[in-house]
Amino acid sequence: MAIILDGKALRDKILQDLKVKIDSYEVKPSLAVILVGDNPASQIYVNNKHKIAQKIGIKSEIINYPTDITEETLLNKIEELNNNSAIDAILVQLPLPEHISKDKVINSILPDKDVDGFTPYNFGKLFSGEIPTVYPCTPKGILLMLDEYNIELDGRHAVVVGRSSIVGRPLSQMLLNRNATVTVCHSHTKNLSQITKTADILISAVGKNIIKGEMLKSDCVVVDVGIFKDENGKTRGDADFETSSKIASYISPVPGGVGPMTIASLMLNTVELFKKHRLN
Ligand code: GUN
C-alpha cells in the first residue's frame, strides 16, 4: 500500500514557519488577486487564497470584476497595481473569459510582481535554465512535496501528463533542471499507458479520470494534480486511488495533496517578492 504524500500537513508546516517570519516584519507583504466572472471553482480557489493569506499576516485584497468587463479596464487596473509600491504581488486568476486575451493580460504584469511566474519574462528565464523571479505555484508545490519525502529526481524518468501553461509546461522544465529524464504526454499522445508504465514518477494534471493502477510501474510515485467532481458529486483526481495506491510506493491524495501545496507556494512567492521589493 502506497505512502500518502500529505500536502495538507506540509502546507500547515510551511504556513506556520512563514507566519513567524511575517510577524517579525514591520511592514507586511501584500497580495492583490483579480477574479473575473463567476466561475465557481475559481471563486473557491480565490477565497481560499485570501483567507490563508490573511491568517498568516499577508495583506490580501480580492478585486472582483463581472464577466463582461472590458480588457481595457482589466489592463488599466493591472497598470495601477504595477505602479502601486504598496503592492508586492499580483495574481490574475485563470481562466479568463474568452473576449479577454490571457496573453495580453499576463504580459502586462510587472515580472517583479508576477507571483505566479507566468509572464513571458519569467517563463523565458525558466525555459532557458535561468532562475526566474519566482517559480509557478503548482509545480513549485509539487517539488517541495517530493523533496519533503526525499523522493529522488536525478536520473529518474518523470512522466508529466498534461501540457498546460499552469502546470505541465513549467513543471517539465523544473524537473529537467533537477536532472530528471522528462516525458510530456497530452491529448494527442498515442499509447499513453505504454509510456506511463515506464514512469518512476508520474504526474497527472488533466482533470479527467485517466490513470488506473494497471497503467503504473510497480513502486512508482504518483502525483495527482487533477481535481474534479465525478458523476456522484464526489471530489476526485486523475488517478483511480483504489487501484493506483496498490501499485505505487507513494501517492498524493485528492483532495489534500497538491491543492494545499499550491496555496503554500503562493504564500512563499508573495513573501519572496516582498523581500525583493522592501528588504534590500
Ligand atoms: N487557475 C488554476 N490554477 C491557477 C494558478 O496557479 N494561478 C492562476 N493565476 N490561476 C489558476
Protein topology:
Layout: E1 3-4, H1 7-23, E2 30-36, H2 40-55, E3 59-65, H3 71-83, E4 89-92, H4 102-107, H5 120-127, H6 137-148, E5 157-161, H7 168-177, E6 181-185, H8 192-196, E7 201-204, E8 221-224, E9 228-229, E10 235-236, H9 241-247, E11 250-251, H10 258-278
Parallel strand pairs: 1-11, 2-3, 2-4, 5-6, 5-7, 7-8, 8-11
Antiparallel strand pairs: 9-10
Could you give a short description of this structure?
Helix content is 41%, strand content 16%. By secondary structure, the protein is of the alpha/beta class. The strands form 3 sheets. A 6-stranded parallel sheet has the order 1-11-8-7-5-6, sandwiched between helices. Strands 3-2-4 form a 3-stranded parallel sheet, sandwiched between helices. Strands 9-10 form a two-stranded antiparallel ribbon.
Q: How does this model look, in words?
A:
This protein has ten helices and eleven strands. The protein has 280 residues and is α/β, with parallel strands linked by helices. The strands form three sheets. A six-stranded parallel sheet has the order 1-11-8-7-5-6, with helices on both faces. The chain has a three-stranded parallel sheet with strand order 3-2-4, with helices on both faces. α6 (137-148) packs across α7 (168-177). The protein is globular. The model has no long low-confidence stretch (mean pLDDT 97). The chain binds guanine (GUN). Residues 91-94, 116, 137-138, 166, 262 line the site of guanine.
